[in-house]
């Protein structure tokens, strides 16, 4: 660990008390000599650590050398802006020593950046940095768009990235924590190279070091992990793309590899003293043994080895924060561009189109619309099919679950668009399965259209069947299932839930599949084991699921009485039912969907999608959905789908969308008896009663 001190230096010009604001000059546009230009902050040295900050701002052009790792002579700084208050000043001088007292003006900066620059300033020579708050003219939206688009290159091609966690604090004792991280990281790194026969001794030594430290410094380490940098969304790009990373906290510094090893050991040695946020920070900063994707894990994976689809990247880092809601996407575009397969990025122009003049709802909507039009048939990412439209629609319902879709945190967006400012309220059902079957009413000719607004699509138009109606919803209290050693409370909760089911359903047979009602219910509560974690008992052998169902039959379907023997089922039920409720339908189906689902919502089969969705008529008084005499769901105000009339009907719908029935997207759904291609068989058998509709989702 290195301690940085302010001290005497070779040059310290007199500060004349300049008050005028520095006026930026426009950057030189792209030309034959360079592909992009940036400003570099040359932080000038000072004898006195308390001397005012002075710098040169020098424009420099760079070329892109595709496939060739070229690093430039500057350090990129990763830090948090903090509150938008700018009490400190950075003075800009002409790019020469000839007139040290002449000033071009000052740039107002935050207290945190001021502190970072003071600690990074050297005694004898300038240090060359790239700092977004200074090197980008933040008041010029056009330049800001261009420079933020270039940020992946800026961090990727810097000689190093400097992480600034903030000043030292009496609350978390940076010296103590950073010293502990260094000692623990070094001890862990030496143990990894040892032979199996001797590594156990090093393991005892590591455990002893962690235990002794946490016994005396629980509060300090907890406060340290709460520093804002650890939850900042932009750090993902800044750290993942960097050539090398050094972490600074006040006067203290450690390298990233040492830090991530320390985070790994701390996570593994959690003694119950850390909150969920602390554990999220530790898990994200390092690679843990459960195979989760983390910053360190992906830093250590070659570009060719790391392939991930855009939506998976956005979900992976959903807990990371930013001030501008548009940065929920913009901050990860560089990482998405690096990790996504080339055949995806070639079809996704949005990741190169950063525009802060657009409102948030336009940014989110355009991104969703473009994703839905990507051709994923040739993607060889996993041994399963991938339905990207299904995935977008699922995340639209899972993020920031809303009582009234389209209005969240003051941002009004269509219900079919993911609101990335929200939290992931429940896990989407499996949209990609090796044995997955989509509903294919049009035999694979997907019809996905968008009705345009002034700035973005406002309506998603698909073809599908309003298949069934929700007649009841029943909630399950999963809180007791999340507690350790509380099987009795879990049984009480499940028994209360089953009593409510029995009040609504009077037949012991589940007619859609001819199973016993409780068997169908037990499978539905875990979505047919779709969310089984890799470390679950059920994941170890597929026969264990059959063992569970056989035991349920032998126990005469007394599901609550089985919980003490099957804790893995309790855990899986709690995971699956988080944010979800059971629903029953008019045709006798049962399933699980978001808790926002209400009676009279419509279970819909949308063409080309791998799971059913729950829709709600936006103006129920005028367009009440109902069951016809033959059991088919009738949806007034929707065009019947006829191939010969489709273009004409779409033109009518586009001319006045409000004149026709439109729906809000409420949830994806697991419907027991409709998840394995049964809907296609029903369509063949009852085609006359199941009229395809043109469904407009707003």
From TrEMBL:
Domain Heterokaryon incompatibility intervals:
74-238
Pfam families linked? HET, Het-6_barrel
**Position of the signal peptide:** none
Q: Which InterPro entries match?
A: HET (IPR010730), HetReg/Transcr_Mod (IPR052895)
Q: Which domain of life is it from?
A: Eukaryota
Q: Supply the PANTHER family for this chain.
A: ANKYRIN REPEAT DOMAIN-CONTAINING PROTEIN 39 HOMOLOG-RELATED, HETEROKARYON INCOMPATIBILITY DOMAIN-CONTAINING PROTEIN
Name this polypeptide is given: Heterokaryon incompatibility domain-containing protein
Top-level taxonomy: Eukaryota, Fungi, Dikarya, Ascomycota, Pezizomycotina
